[in-house]
């Protein structure tokens, strides 16, 4: 159980980083979907502090991606 609390934030950070790279380079919808699924899976197993940070990061990235398209 403790391993989940150690590994999940690392996975969440990796998913968030890949999401950022995809948003910056606009690789494609499939890559965005994979990053989203990884982030959501990590958020399910992460402690609530990391869940909150992950959700905020995801929302901020969504707004950045939308504003970049406009």
Features:
about 70 residues; mainly alpha; 3 helices; elongated; transmembrane helix; membrane; transmembrane
Layout of SSEs?
Elements: H1 2-25, H2 29-45, H3 48-69
Helix pairs in contact: 1-2, 1-3, 2-3
Transmembrane segments: 30-60
Keywords: Membrane, Transmembrane, Transmembrane helix
Description:
This protein is mainly alpha-helical. It has one domain. Helices cover 90% and strands 0% of the residues. Helix 1 (2-25) packs antiparallel against helix 2 (29-45), helix 1 packs parallel to helix 3 and helix 2 (29-45) packs antiparallel against helix 3. The radius of gyration is 12 Å and the shape is elongated. The chain starts with a helix and ends with a helix.
The oligomeric state is single chain
| Order of H and E elements | HHH
Structural class category: mainly alpha
Spans of at least 5 consecutive residues with low confidence: none
The figure for the number of domains is: 1
Overall helicity: over 70%
The total of beta strands comes to: 0
> How much β-strand is present in the residues?
under 5%
Shape: elongated
Report mean pLDDT, rounded to a whole number. Answer: 66
Number of helices: 3
The whole-angstrom Rg is 12 Å
What does the largest sheet look like? none
Terminal Cα span = 44 Å
Keywords: Membrane, Transmembrane, Transmembrane helix
Transmembrane segments: 30-60
